[in-house]
Amino acid sequence: MKKIFMLLVMLCALQAVTAAASLVNNGNGTVTDSRTGLVWQQGEPGTKTWGAALSYCEGLSLGNKTDWRLPNIKELESLTDDARYYPAIDTLFFPGAYASYYWSSTTYAYYPHYAWDVSFGNGYVVSYVKYGNFYVRCVRGGQYGGFVDLDIDGLPDAWELKYFGNLAQGPYDDYDHDNLNNLDEYQQGTDPAKWDTDGDGMNDGDEVAKGKDPLVKDAGVFEQPSLLTYKGISCISSPTAKNLVFITHGWNSNSDTWVKAMREKIYTSLTNKADWDVCTYDWSEYAATFDNLLPAPWDAYVNAIEHGKKIAQEITAVNYNHIHFIAHSAGSNLIQSAADWINSNKQRTSSQMPTIHMTFLDAYDPSKENSRYGKGADFAEQYVDTRRVGVSSLDDSDLTLPFAYNFDVTSLDIQRGNDITGEKVHAWPYRLYIYSIDKDQSWLDWGSSSNVALFQNENILYGYRLSYEKSGSVLGNENLYYGFPRGATHTFSGTPPPPEPGGLPVIKLEQKGILDFNSAQQRNDLTTSESCIPELSPQNSLIMRTCSPVWVIASQDIASLINTLTFDYQFTSIAKGLLSVYFDGQLVNKVDGQNASDGINHSDNVALGDISPGKHTVSFRLDPSTQEQAVIELSNVQFSAMQVVFVSDADNDGHTSDVDCNDNNPAINPGAAEIPNNNLDDDCNPATPVLAASGAGYNYPAPLFKASLTLNVNVSSLATGWLKYSFKRMSLSSTSITNISVINGTATIIGVGKVNGAPNYTFTATAQEGSPDLMGIEIRRPDNTLYFNAALAPVSSGNYSLAGQ
Fold first, then answer.
1. Residue 397's CB: how many other CB atoms inside 10 A?
2. pTM (2 decimals)?
3. Cis peptide bond N-terminal to 772, omega within 30
4. Contact 327, 247 (CB under 8 A)
């Protein structure tokens, strides 16, 4: 063991000596690296933006040479010395070097407004926005211009040292087991230490064998997304808690910052602590830095969706009476996703609880004026700072939320001018909200206590004092609020409230097109993974099964402006996976099978931004979350234009005039036309047939047996409804029907029954009208484990009659 240790020490020393020996001080302000043939600027010209760094190097005259340039990322990385730390560079030859970041000329392809750079503190390669200020070291000469091959193996020594750290590898070795030997890797320009250089899910050797470029991600195959993990909620809790305060951070943050401080202050302020849980949630792994990269706020916004669903499931299990959600920036999408899930659960269980209060702090939403933030809440508010910040994409945080009461708090910060840039202005709303808890002025370290006194007006409630946990007031009493409507913004400027925007906010979704997978295939506009080929059905659904990552990309002509994508999905395997959805190569949605309900799920309204007419691509990728195969069926992929409009509610009955039969009388609503199968009593006529399903369907999947589903269910008389299903020697007969829903021609019936005479099996059956009709069912044992599952499929004969309001 001692000999081995000494050998390692000698090898490390040899590597350091070799690296040092390759550098030559030219005595004229330049250093030559004999390994690469590159000549480097020795001095330090200071920090510059990326554009200024390019210009500086191109204009540099040094050592009687004028052909200087900003190095690309591979050249810059070759200057790092792994035997050194802070700085990770030979300071004998570069005595003024900083243990900090230096620009390269290489743009980050995924975010073109970012560029790659090297940290000479630890030698890591990272990326950053181009208007940041980093150090500069110019270079001249060609990459690996000095071909030195001391071990005579056909591989440049500098190349071997760069990727392997030594010269021990041979030209025909396959270090990364990607079916390319080292000589092939050198000639192809691929990374010999990476199985998949371009990160598209296909190894370098397979790409070369199939005539693909191993340095370019293939269309539809994207870098493997990290499978989602969820940290626990951190709470100051009470075993008798009836209510919850839930606080979370936004992009590029974590719960150990202002979030934890807010939790402590709110808990201290409570008069009856036994009634409250005050909790924080940390999702920084998906909102901040990972793999040495800083994701854009859009990525955090997308990742927040599934985190919100997971949190909602945990919260719902506690049966709170009231929930106050508080979130900053992209965390707003997390609490909205949680609120959406909770409201859906309330509808499923016919529950009125919990009531929901939502507080948004400089909310980030790419949907901008069409944001759904606050929808479904009993009360929603936002505190927003409208000044510019250091990240241009955060302009999507300067919003007026149509479903919330909005407070522009910019003018309360008079010590900072309106043209100030930087993330501090993005933080001002949560600092002001923390101040409103207990008037702790340390949170106003750049504000004016005299100006923010407007925020503590004793006659009008703003900030934390408006919350149920502080005031004890019942949410929904609009007389408590500020004399201005939702969907407008109060500016604290002494001016009159803004005009009424026209009523209550309503989301209008205008369908602009449906993605037809079969037609796309016929047009050669459908590309799929080669190792796991998705299956198309005649009903225009797509079935994806993992054997490795499985993906499909479909091109579609969009005739008019769209901003929203929706789709239906159903995991038909016990093992669930992670579905990633891309539009024009940009990740726009994730679906974690862990959070999906059984049966058919309907996606959220997926924000795309404003998409102009033309040919665009939609891609779906399914990754397994375990060693077991994951299977998902996708259908009903639609493109829409979503718009939030304000519609009158003259009789103040909570129903806007577009669905209210008589907007002048809150007691009666006659006269509206009935829209079939939308679950609304549009014509206000109790005699309208409501949520009924009857009929029979038969399938013959093999010559010797058949499957049949017969039913007769009406929501007004569930007790007399019945359902029967048979398959081979299995027979299910319902003993009670507990729920029926009929939406857009699809009936879902839930109940309890006997299987071959054994009681207490639960089932969820689905019938759908079409040409032909479809049927499906899932049956679970009394312990809730899966007993039988038949996916929705066309009937061979029979007919269902479905009716909905």
1. 28
2. 0.60
3. yes
4. yes
